[in-house]
What does this fold into?
Amino acid sequence: MLKGVIVEDERLVANFLKMQLEQSNLVSVVGEFLKPSDALKEIPTIKPDVVFLDIEMPGMNGIELGTKLLNQYPEVEIVFVTAYNQYAVEAFKLNALHYILKPSDEEEVREAIQRVLRKKNLLKLNSDNSLKIELLGHIKVFQNNEEVRLRWTTVKVEELFSLMVLYRKTGIEKWQIIEKLWPNIEMKKAEQNLYTTIYRLKKTFLESGIQLTIENIKGKYTIELSNCTIDIEEQEDWHMEQLFGDRSYEWKQVIKL
It folds into this structure.
């Protein structure tokens, strides 16, 4: 069972969420805080598995608290709770995978818990699990020599993965990704597309049993795949035209590796 903490400045909302969590029989609520500052002080002692954070709070809001927690305790999972869908974009920026919209319903809460459990279980996988990615021809992913059938929810999810794997060692700046994937879209909309696509990409791999991390480090997005080999790094004699099979990405012709 997961150890959970609730940070919510409205007592009734906190009580309702606590009831939903405990009814799931998957989370034991070991701490409740009305003030983010109190939570920040006590969480190191409580050592929860997951923190349910309201975003709209006076003083330090949930995004600020979530940032501090993830920086100090990266093993803690964050689930944002918000009445405003617009804050989902901020959650994507923070590299969070989970958020719940108020008023929360039982199914949505359970789904968020299941995602946390899946991720926690993935982190416990034996480090001997090997991953191989083939980019020459159609993209294929193998785990322990068995092909993993990935379900790309949109064509942009697959395209973003392709691009980020190519830039796996150096990282790639946000504006470069947008320039390649959404060149003719207004910047704010393009940014929302990027955050949503990153979320879907992480979810695709999570549901396939593969731990994938996407981080924004000093303005550059990097993709981290543990114990992974890539065919183009092992082969010397290959040409750009061979990449991605029949996927005709326009940026493929001008990319410099």
Q: What stands out?
A: The CA atoms of residues 67 and 94 lie 7 Å apart. The chain has two domains: 2-123, 131-253. The two ends are 45 Å apart (CA to CA). The chain is about 40% helix and 20% strand.
